Amino acid sequence: MRLIRWLDENFELAVLAVLLAVMSVLSFVNVIMRYCFKNALSWSDEVCCYCLALSAFFALSCAVRQGVSIRVDTFVTLLSPKTQKILEIICSVIMLGFLAVLLAGTGRIAATSAGIGQKSPALRLPVAGLYGTMAFAVALSMFRYVQFIWRTVTKKEEEDEK
User: Fold this and answer.
1) Containing structural domain, residue 145
2) What is the total count of domains within the chain?
3) Deepest of 45, 57, 105, 118, by most Cβ within 10 A of its Cβ?
4) How high is the pLDDT of residue 157?
């Protein structure tokens, strides 16, 4: 149970930390190889590019989990707390719809690239794995929005009881 709680609170942060570490180390090593040994790694740019793309998808889930997604709330702050909660739920449901479309798209791309056996240019790795990981990150974001909606609804009920 402790592991599940830790993963619930820190999974995205851990993934983002690993991706950042991989990008930093590979970029540093490639600079050293290029300028000191005049022989750059041909594959490090590809790995860094994939890590950056994946970090964008996992950062969305992390932002939702931490409750720090970017939004303009000038109008919303003028409303009553009850109306604010309703708007938060509506916006979250809209985001769930958008993420469902994104999940379907990434799933189709992953299936298509797996079907044709598409490989990455430098490492010759199956690109379907990258797209599948993106689909997983989108599904994780959807899960985080469901969690957010649940917390918002139950918090509202607790406040009404007081």
Assistant:
1) 2-161
2) 1
3) 57
4) 56
